[in-house]
Amino acid sequence: MGNYNKRIERMERQYKRRKRKNGSHEPYVEAYPPGWEPKSAAQKAALECQADILLFGGTAGSLKTETILVDAARECKNPNLRGIIFRQQRTQMSDIVEKTRRLYTAMGATFACDPFWTWTFPSGATIRLGYISSDDGIFQYLGPRYSFIGFDESNSTLNIRFATCSGG
What we know:
Blueprint: H1 41-48, H2 64-73, E1 82-87, H3 93-104, E2 110-112, E3 117-120, E4 126-131, E5 148-151, H4 159-166
Parallel strand pairs: 1-4, 1-5
Antiparallel strand pairs: 2-3, 3-4
Helix pairs in contact: 2-3
């Protein structure tokens, strides 16, 4: 199954892109935040990757968090998008909330803190932010179906968290 205790800085893609037909029979167009574009070759390669599971690492400041946030929102025009992005501790959430405010507000999304940290886009698509501080913490997130699951700052995410989320 591989060594998931390595420095995993990217998300897990557990789905193949849903292509839902709209009125013109065209698939939903993937979108970047207005005025945003990939800032490095690695970021561009990660965003263009069609893998179901992608591990993306790097040093501090190498745009890993921004990459996962942008990738999660690329199908924000699809009302079926249900994403979740995890961090390890609640205290780490302020950084990711600040970054999502910068990126998602420009895409027309609104943020609700209670009862869950959730961004809702004009189409009805949602991206939830969560944290898992222990292995059994993953079980509080089971139930809803997610079309996008990401682990940010997950270098210490253990196999059980990944396996549980991915159905493995």
